[in-house]
Amino acid sequence: MIDLHYWPTPNGHKITIFLEETGTPYRIVPVDISRGDQFKPDFLQIAPNNRMPAIVDPDPADANGPLSVFESGAILVYLADKVGRFLPAEIRPRTEVLQWLFWQMGGLGPMAGQNHHFGTYAPEKIPYAIERYVKETNRLYGVLDRRLAGRDFIAGDYSIADMASYPWIVPYERQAQRLEDFPNLKRWFDAMAARPAVQRAYKVGEAYRTRPVVDEESRKILFGQTAATVAPKA
């Protein structure tokens, strides 16, 4: 039974998609990021970057006691290797999946995240910042659209690269994008949305959206931290 420290964000959805696709037993440990759960000392022990998701596997392959993993990309690689699915063992197809996983981690996620921040959450609307990240998100959509030409999935076969990227496309309207402008991406997006495991994963998240994610209190928690404010208390 995997313990999944989770909140229904794009990065959280990545992991529930994998767990639902593979039928891996898991238990949700809610991390309400709008109320500061990610800064609690016990969570810091498994996620030193104060970000969810994180997992604790009580039964890792080395049998040396529970193993914790943070960072959603690392979690997907770990779980795929543990279960033996959605990440090939052969060097070339494995590299294909990993480079697109890291593309999402280093590009699509951070840029779309800044798009969300300046377009939705920032108390001051800064036109330059909004335009910068809307355009960069659009460029990345184009990269993915070209990649999906003639392919059902990002790396050919369905993989953790698809699970990582899909949740960051779901809020496309909030990112000021039109899927109709990217026909290959839209075809892939619709196929992903139709997968029963993806639908189950998003259903899991519905139980945790019980209050507004961002209000004045949570804005300070989410966007106002420094090294000093999150340091463990002596």
Automatic annotation (TrEMBL):
Pfam families: GST_C, GST_N. Residues 90-214 form the GST C-terminal domain. InterPro entries: Glutathione-S-Trfase_C-like, Glutathione-S-Trfase_C_sf, Glutathione_S-Trfase, Glutathione_S-Trfase_N, GST_C, Thioredoxin-like_sf. Signal peptide: none annotated. Residues 1-87 form the GST N-terminal domain. Transmembrane segments: none annotated. Gene3D superfamilies: 1.20.1050.10, Glutaredoxin. Belongs to the GST superfamily. PANTHER family: DISULFIDE-BOND OXIDOREDUCTASE YFCG, GLUTATHIONE S-TRANSFERASE-RELATED. This is Thiol:disulfide oxidoreductase. It comes from Roseiterribacter gracilis.
